Amino acid sequence: MALGHMAFELPFVFLLLKASSSIELYIKRLYRPLTTAISLFILYFSILSFEAAARGPGAGNSAIPLEPSSYATAFVIGVVLTGFNAHFLLWWVSVGFPLITGAARSPPLGALVMYASHVWMDFAWLALLAGMGDVASTFAPAYRALMALVGLMLLLFAFDLLARAWLGKRLLPL
Length: 174
Hints:
mainly alpha
């Protein structure tokens, strides 16, 4: 599935790199509305993290069990889940766009370094999620604490983005 994700992401990112100067002009014009929209998404994910912390692992799990019969099926699932994920697409043209504009300033090495630096984290994250599925129920208190911490971090990040966009002030030191 991770390879399917990458198969969609790689050409998408390089397409954005190619059009970065044109896209950047539009994003600058829409900075506040885009920042507000992405902050609302981040706030939503913060709420989901707090809810997961309150429920604990395995409670109310409504995930569809995917058991691909072959590597090809898993690959296709990765492509489809990535390509039809509006959050993923919006992430690259909003939060991830500074990575793209920075990489576009140093072609072609900038793009290669940026993407290689990014994609290994995708593989590490997806492998971690796959490996931690059954382990989470064993460590319910740690899981709850981790989800609460993630929720808090997302909440702070969303408010920092809003403060920067609308007040010109940072709440976080970075």
